[in-house]
Input
Amino acid sequence: MRTPYGQECPYYYADYHRGRNEELCRLVEASPASEPWIPDVCKDCPVPAIARANACEHMTLQARVVKGFLGFGRKIVVEAYCAKAQRNVSEPQIGCGQCHGDAKIADLFNE
Output
């Protein structure tokens, strides 16, 4: 679904049907350690870019809203984990490095 800032995000949800005014981020809601989510944090959220760059089926994302310096401003912090490599992913846009290599080898055998 498209965020208020025009990016496609698989975790953003909005419902305005018949007077409803419901907006939420399912990824942030799954994190109990997060500050409350507001639609303004979607502006600089890295999740839509990660989803466009890397569609690895083994990578899972966790996100939370954190307060900025002196409590002003909020931003989303994203952490990624690869279930196949069983380790944290430092650059989610690129991936763990193991899964993409397997895909390239499989493509060679399918040709």
